[in-house]
What does this fold into?
Amino acid sequence: MAQLRNHRDYNYDYIEGNAVRKLQPAYEPEIQRPERKVNPKVEERRRKRLAKDAVIDFKFAMLVAGVCLTSLFSCAGFLQMQAKISAQRTSIAAMQTELAQLTNENVAQEEQLNSSVNLNEIYTKASKEFGMKYADSKHIVLYESADPDYVRQYQDIPENK
It folds into this structure.
């Protein structure tokens, strides 16, 4: 704690005594320097060198133009790709909407077909008008197939079991 008291920063706005600093003037007056005499040949060479340095040479100008054109074409290509992607997203969204609509119509049609079929009426008509009845165990023929997952509809059923 004692060390902190010894090393304090005193920031006072007002100072008394003979140690007061004098205020700096708001500006420094320009010092009048005597004009130097310049050799006209040296001055001419200096002007020519400055003019030469200020001129952009052809190779540098072509390089800058090439870089600018390359960046311009790159930006144009990027914007074109962005436009294509945006158009494809819009197209995909429209197709998804159409697919959802067709799926809903398909489900509605299927429900309408299922509701229009009366299984009791079909059974009655088949059994009374056409004389159909359920198959007995003696009418069922079982056979082994080479491919149990697939049965050909129009293939002849073998006679032997």
The mean pLDDT is 81. The CA atoms of residues 59 and 65 lie 10 Å apart.
